[in-house]
Design a protein that fits this description.
Distance between the termini: 20 Å
Main location: membrane
Helix content: under 10%
Subcellular location: Cell membrane
Organism: Xylaria flabelliformis
Largest sheet: 7 strands, mixed
Number of strands: 31
Protein name: Probable aspartic-type endopeptidase OPSB
Bound molecules: 2-acetamido-2-deoxy-beta-D-glucopyranose
CATH topology of the largest domain: Cathepsin D, subunit A, domain 1
CATH architecture of the largest domain: Beta Barrel
Family: Belongs to the peptidase A1 family.
Length: 480
């Protein structure tokens, strides 16, 4: 039996920020309006700890998802424009930003310097909405202040009077761009008010997109580009056909991106079959969390060493070149995740590669036990999938991703229910585990949409994490 000597963090995990615009081809006679940006990678100190904080309450609520997410986009707010880098989070629904006069931002280390902050009184288009903005986290951190509105620009698309929060009190150095269901806005859950139009919804209202739906392409762990398209899909970024599944309601309410996992296989061997398990698609989670028995079977097959104090497992780094895949079936399709996407680099606090007792290099395995918490398909799964989140129709469409796609063919997602080139999965299995059953389960409703267009945000990943590591900028945390 191997034991580990680890004091480590993951260097290979990415988060993205918008870096540059890219050209999107015209579609038909009326060119859709397309927002296009790219991203850079940044290291996350201690992602296992991060994920734990997100998961501690058992279910992932909007307010829990705001502390740290993995994907960054550049945006500007106000007149004249103030630049910010925002965490892009499918798991929450509010946009909020820091203000430089908060106690946090005024700290000597200038923690808000990287992501930027917003001064309301420096903007001629700022308008006050109310004082009930308040997000808090399970670990006791949070942000609170005012809801305001101002001009918001992302990748060249400008929205007037977009509502967002200002964290006059904040313990998170980066603002969050939550793009989930409006019903998860803290104004609804906390203040009991009606939902406002958050970014993806506001794009529809302003006629920038036809439907409240967007596509997320995270791309390869080692890759340099990824993208999000609001109101569009890029048919060059996936293989085969997009297959459309109903989002599973929780207690009758569509509020999270839950779909039904029916089978898991590893290297062609069944790990679990005939499942009806709700799993949450969460780009804000670094790892994938599955039921303990499934995870144990997987660990046995890949010789993973589980560290109960870390809540995660270590594998020989050489597993990355194993040609077996871990396959996830959702009635249909089946998404295959290669070992290279599941084996994550670790670096000790001394900057060394950690090793097992026998000297073999140790890496972090991308799947961990869910215990009594939510089953989550995090980035270690999502990078291998092209995912269309159709909030208007309560549907998810999935296909195997095409890593490092170099061509682009953006199609607008029109009003109504159909997706260009996608197939609705017949007899898809409804979840019986992992959700609180209710009348809304599997019942897709058709939203009212108007106008047309595609807003796209392209993301490029840089080697920022590695740069940070070699520059010694990151504070190394200990896996515990
Ligand atoms: C995103 O913002 C950061 C900080 O201002 C900047 O360094 C980076 O170049 C920006 N990317 C683009 C393409 O604007
Ligand atoms: C803007 O300035 C006014 C007048 O100085 C002040 O009362 C108000 O609190 C400021 N608003 C914000 C959001 O800082
Ligand atoms: C925000 O909500 C938390 C939890 O309900 C509460 O403790 C805190 O006082 C609130 N903050 C503000 C500024 O209202
Ligand atoms: C994608 O590109 C990156 C960076 O060039 C490379 O390391 C990686 O192997 C590529 N992935 C695939 C699947 O080709
Ligand atoms: C890949 O890993 C699986 C599971 O550990 C193992 O059965 C298989 O022999 C490995 N294949 C190669 C080519 O090493
Ligand atoms: C779906 O919603 C419609 C309209 O509210 C209702 O008539 C129907 O019974 C629902 N179906 C299911 C499966 O809940």
């Amino acid at each position: 039996m191997k034991t580990t000597e680890l004091c480590a963090l993951v260097a290979g995990l990415a988060y993205f920020e918008v870096a540059h615009a890219r050209n999107i081809p015209n579609i038909g006679q009326t060119a859709p309006k397309v927002v296009s940006l790219s991203t850079q990678r940044k290291g996350i100190p201690n992602p296992v700890h991060r994920d734990r904080l997100r998961r501690r309450a058992g279910s992932v609520e909007a307010s829990l998802d705001n502390q740290e997410t993995l994907y960054f986009v550049n945006a500007t707010i106000g007149t004249p424009a103030q630049s910010l880098r925002l965490h892009l989070d499918t798991g929450s629904s509010d946009l909020w930003v820091n203000t430089p006069s908060s106690t946090l931002c005024e700290e000597r280390s200038q923690p808000c310097g990287y992501a930027g902050s917003y001064v309301a009184n420096s903007s001629s288009t700022y308008e006050y909405v109310g004082d009930w903005f308040n997000i808090s986290y399970v670990d006791g951190s949070g942000a609170s202040g005012d809801y305001v509105s101002d001009t918001f620009t992302i990748g060249g698309t400008t929205l007037d009077r977009l509502q967002f929060g200002i964290g006059y009190t904040s313990t998170s150095a980066q603002g969050i761009l939550g793009i989930g269901y409006p019903v998860n806005e803290v104004q609804v859950g906390r203040a009991g008010k009606d939902a406002y139009d958050n970014l993806p919804k506001a794009m529809v209202t302003a006629g920038k997109t036809a439907r409240n739906a967007y596509s997320l392409w995270l791309n390869d762990l080692d890759a340099s580009t990824g993208s999000i398209l609001f109101g569009g899909i890029d048919t060059e970024q996936y293989m085969g056909t997009l297959q459309t599944l109903p989002i599973q309601a929780n207690a009758g309410v569509f509020s999270e991106f839950l779909i039904t996992l029916t089978a898991v296989d590893l290297g062609g061997q069944s790990i679990a079959k005939n499942q009806a398990l709700a799993v949450l698609l969460d780009s804000g989670s670094s790892l994938t969390y599955l039921p303990n028995d499934m995870v144990q079977t997987i660990y046995d097959q890949v010789s993973a060493e589980y560290d109960s104090s870390a809540g995660a497992a270590y594998v020989p780094c050489s597993l990355a070149s194993n040609t077996s895949t871990l396959d996830f079936t959702f009635t249909s399709p089946k998404i295959s995740v290669t070992m290279g996407e599941l084996v994550l680099d670790l670096v000790t606090s001394g900057g060394r590669q950690p090793t097992f007792n026998d000297g073999e290099a140790a890496c972090l395995f991308g799947v961990a036990p869910a215990g009594s918490g939510t089953n989550v398909l995090g980035d270690t799964f999502l990078r291998s999938a092209y995912v269309v989140y159709d909030i208007d129709n309560n549907q998810i469409s999935l296909a195997q991703t095409k890593f490092n796609a170099t061509t682009s063919n953006v199609k607008e997602i029109p009003t109504g229910t159909s997706l260009p080139g996608a197939t609705v999965v017949s007899n898809s299995v409804a979840a019986t585990e992992g959700v609180i059953s209710g009348s809304g389960n599997g019942n897709a409703s058709v939203g009212n949409t108007k106008s047309s267009g595609v807003a796209s945000v392209a993301m490029s990943v840089s080697t920022y994490a590695l740069a940070l590591l070699s520059a010694g900028v990151t504070t190394y945390a200990t896996l515990y």
